[in-house]
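Please, structure for the following, as tokens.
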Amino acid sequence: MYIDIDVHHGDGVEEAFYLSNRVCTISFHEFGNGFFPGTGGLDSKGEGEGKYFKLNVPLLQGIDDITYVELFKSIVGKTIEIFRPSVIVC
């Protein structure tokens, strides 16, 4: 599992594994209003064997810490429970 938490969409890693179910990617990133790179909407889920192994959490600018932590815990926790990765890279 690969978890990307910087402000930009983890588009490179997502693209590298877009068709694969071997790596689940999760990206928490700012999205909208022309923010670079402009990718990582909710509709970007992977394709083929990789479908639903790509999770994007597009966030609006100005999210507060409490909301971010709640989102992170619930999304990552449930994904770990379902995907059951042997390794997590953040």
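The first helix runs from residue 11 to 16. The chain has a mean pLDDT of 96.
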